[in-house]
Amino acid sequence: MCLPAAALDRLVGPATAVGPTTTFQDVLAVIGWYEDADGVCNDAPPGHETGLDPTTVDEVLDYLWTADQIEGIMTLGGRHPSLDDVRRVLPGRDRFWGDDGRYLPHP
């Protein structure tokens, strides 16, 4: 999955607020590999597969999740967000987790 920067900016918003466009592309690509396979994508695979620092991965996942570009189940853990079974939100595809996988801001 290799999106032009302009297309990615439309998808996730201005990526430079969190990291370079290639960082978003890399994380989204890893999520895509895992959702199409039997494996489960959580916070660890994007860092392991890309070599990105865990803090950077967490920031990108947090941004994508709050921007409603990925879905996943929030779990207890030391990372924020600690997401399990992360999937991309794609046009025309039903959400795997429904409303439970959406970001819900705390009041």
Would you mind describing this structure in some detail?
- The chain has helices spanning 5-12, 21-35, 44-50, 54-66, and strands spanning 70-74, 83-88.
- The protein is an alpha+beta fold and 107 residues long.
- It has a single domain (5-90), classed as Arc Repressor Mutant, subunit A (Orthogonal Bundle).
- α2 (21-35) crosses α3 (44-50).
- The longest helix has 15 residues, at 21-35.
- The chain is globular.
Keywords:
about 110 residues; alpha+beta; Arc Repressor Mutant, subunit A; two-stranded antiparallel ribbon; 2 strands; about 40% helix; disordered N terminus
Compact summary:
This protein has helices at 5-12, 21-35, 44-50, 54-66; strands at residues 70-74, 83-88. By secondary structure, the chain is an alpha+beta fold. It has a single domain, classed as Arc Repressor Mutant, subunit A, CATH 1.10.10.
The CATH topology is given as Arc Repressor Mutant, subunit A
Tell me the domain tally: 1
Question: What's the rounded overall pLDDT mean?
Answer: 82
- According to CATH, the homologous superfamily is Winged helix-like DNA-binding domain superfamily/Winged helix DNA-binding domain
**Series of secondary-structure elements, N-terminal to C-terminal:** HHHHEE
Class by SSE composition: alpha+beta
Assign the CATH architecture.
Answer: Orthogonal Bundle
User: What is the overall silhouette?
Assistant: globular
Let me know the number of strands: 2
